[in-house]
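The protein record filed below.
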Amino acid sequence: MSGPDVEILDLIGPLQVFARASDMHRRASLGSAPIYSVEIVSISSSRSLIANCGVRISADRTFRKVRGKIDTLLVAGGDAIEQNKIDPEAVRWLKRIARRIRRVGSVCTGAMLLARAGLLDGRRATTHWNWCQTLIKRAPRARVDSNPIFVRDENIYTSAGVTAGMDLALALVEEDHGSQLALQVARNLVLYLRRPGGQSQFSAALSLQLTDRKPLRELEAWVLDNLQRPLTVPLLAQRVAMSPRNFARVFTNEMKTTPAKFIERLRVEAARRRLEESQNSMEMIADECGFGNINSMRNVFQRTLKIAPGQYRRHFRHVKHSAKKN
């Protein structure tokens, strides 16, 4: 389901996952009925849509022409939804029809339309990190979390920006037809079946680059080169020529987290990259990333990612090896 100026990957990404799942299932079970029948539904008065990249798309029908049973409905994000320029009749239709649909979800800023229809009230939800504050305003009774790739709250699903819609679609395929088919689709499309550990929408290093304060931005390179050191607040404050107290206050205001928690995120991300790309031992990686020892690294991984370092490494290598074979 999409409106004018739709974000094309919000629409095409999940559609491709469902189409590939249906095709792969058909090939494996000759003569079987299609497991998915996907339609593009326009929430405007016209079937003709122009994506925000300029590509023209012809929807199968408009929302007014939808008939019969709907199993799953996903709302793609886009400019019209973000600017709250959706026909009130379409909002009423969504609110009414959602009561008889097994699953309702959104990709990226499509969550804004779910919010307008009241479908997020009392629920946990997410959207693209840059739109979370707007979603909080539009859905004040929802519990908005800016971190996850996607969130399920009973039969309502919301996902983060753009490619997160493919993560959500893979999760729905797994719900419907099991992990084997979902993994085959993920391998074929060279995707994670599940991004390990409920992966954050963006890295700690990227969030540091987004601050307007140049000293904090410049701190990034030095920190990444010195993760093995005890990165205390006094040491970090010295690097940016600030008092420890002022540094801690400014950093927390800018980054919405404490320096200690931020450094921990950087260490986890650095360790993940080493687990994915190197043959180094767990002990060496723990030392290089500043955890001190493997037990400390394991505890931090379990607390922040809900997965042990060894399990993370095995998962990545399995996915990487499978992608190469396909």
About this structure: The chain has 14 helices and ten strands. The mean pLDDT is 88.
